[in-house]
Design brief:
By secondary structure, the protein is of the alpha+beta class. The protein has one domain. Helices cover 51% and strands 24% of the residues. The protein has a five-stranded mixed β-sheet, sandwiched between helices. A two-stranded antiparallel ribbon has the order 1-2. The two termini are 36 Å apart.
Length: 214
């Protein structure tokens, strides 16, 4: 579980909270399939996570001229990275989005969680919250993540975003999946319910199980 620290207290990350409902049947089927092919599931997941982190750095560098630090990559990753950037650049240039900030870490003691949003930008006087994904497809939990970030911005930064978007960027394509304010409100409400469940679930786990005679 990823945690954020603030003033001596620890707060769970958005992704840790959403992880409660992200272990769906599709993931289990994939894991079983890779297992039958004698693949190391954990190694594949770690490799995917590592490349996602690496790719986020380069996508951040594309949209934020203030950010120059790049994680070193090897020759095997170079083509894959360049393929993703070649797909992303035309879409980004056409969008005419202007960066407000990137990699914003926000922790809310009052709500009891924290998160790091990828990209806050604006266009035509509208504030847009965006999250980069290197996966092949978009999933509902990705928009739930946007709802959680939107709540953090509203509560801790007094920023109300007008729109939000998942940006799928991989070696095969780049696509923007936007949602409006009304839909984002629904994901905010859903995340609040999930957060409440998460708090109660962890409280029960911390209590442990007591053995008693019947």
């Amino acid at each position: 579980m990823k945690m954020y620290e603030l003033n001596g207290f620890e707060y769970p990350s958005v992704t840790s909270i959403i992880h409660l409902i992200s272990l769906n049947d599709g993931l289990m089927q994939w894991a079983n399939y890779m297992g039958f092919k004698r693949k190391d599931i954990k190694a594949i997941q770690n490799e995917s996570t590592a490349f996602g982190t690496l790719m986020h750095e380069y996508l951040r560098g594309e949209v934020d001229p203030r950010y120059t630090k790049r994680i070193p990559y090897n020759v095997f990753e170079a083509k894959r990275i360049n393929d993703v950037l070649d797909n992303f650049r035309p879409k980004y240039q056409k969008s005419k989005l202007k960066t407000i900030d990137t990699e914003m870490t926000i922790i809310s003691p009052s709500m009891g969680y924290g998160g790091t949003l990828d990209w806050l930008c604006e266009k035509d006087n509208e504030i847009i919250l965006s999250d980069f994904k290197t996966s092949k497809a978009v999933h509902s939990t990705m928009f739930l993540q946007l709802g959680a970030y939107s709540l953090l911005l509203k509560k801790e930064k007094n920023i109300i975003v007008d729109k939000a978007s998942i940006i799928i960027a991989n070696k095969n394509k780049c696509a923007f999946y936007p949602i409006n304010r009304v839909t984002l409100d629904l994901y905010e409400d859903l995340f609040k319910m999930l957060l409440s469940f998460f708090v109660r679930w962890n409280h029960i786990k911390c209590q442990g199980v007591m053995e008693e005679d019947l």
